[in-house]
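Exercise 7. Given the encoded structure of a 181-residue chain, write a plausible sequence.
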């Protein structure tokens, strides 16, 4: 399914856009292509060769990007790499709904190290604004879309607990079993 959606469907859409005389093409990719970093990530940051459960997903996203970029001489190609989108209506197994579900049910949340993964969630409305800007401006290239605040899984679980009026179950620390760059 990942290949069908991320690579085959993207190829079909790119071919259709070229035949239809499109002037813009916007591809939704993922900020996960960069892997983990202690430093701020920019569009010029190196990409990661992921290993583990998400390796195939990231490979298909990167393949779709490469295919889209090959059309940049026919129309404006924008590749949007969002980081941890959240918003109303999002369901399991996405990160925020999963954290809410775990806190509500008293399930311990697994965290890497003391605080868990650091991330910068971005609201879906902000992602939509970037997508719209890519279509209305002559943007060509890659744009990262992340929220303005860096937080941790532990902080998010604590805040969710406050909003739900409960204390999250003790977080379980773990070390990753694969190289996530």
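Solution.
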């Amino acid at each position: 399914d990942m290949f069908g959606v991320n690579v085959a469907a993207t190829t079909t859409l790119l071919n259709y856009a070229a035949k239809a005389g499109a002037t813009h093409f916007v591809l939704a990719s993922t900020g996960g292509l960069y892997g983990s970093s202690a430093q701020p990530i920019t569009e010029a940051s190196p990409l990661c060769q992921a290993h583990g459960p998400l390796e195939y997903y990231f490979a298909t996203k990167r393949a779709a990007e490469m295919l889209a970029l090959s059309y940049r001489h026919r129309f404006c190609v924008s590749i949007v790499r969002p980081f941890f989108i959240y918003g109303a209506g999002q369901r399991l197994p996405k990160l925020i709904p999963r954290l809410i579900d775990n806190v509500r049910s008293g399930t311990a949340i697994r965290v890497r190290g003391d605080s868990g993964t650091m991330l910068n969630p971005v609201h879906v409305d902000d992602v939509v604004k970037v997508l719209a800007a890519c279509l209305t401006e002559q943007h060509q290239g890659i744009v990262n879309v992340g929220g303005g605040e860096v937080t941790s899984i532990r902080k998010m679980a604590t805040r969710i607990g406050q909003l739900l009026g409960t204390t999250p179950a003790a977080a379980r620390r773990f070390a990753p079993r694969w190289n996530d760059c």
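Remark. Residues 2-20 form the longest helix (19 residues). Students should compare their own answers with the one above.
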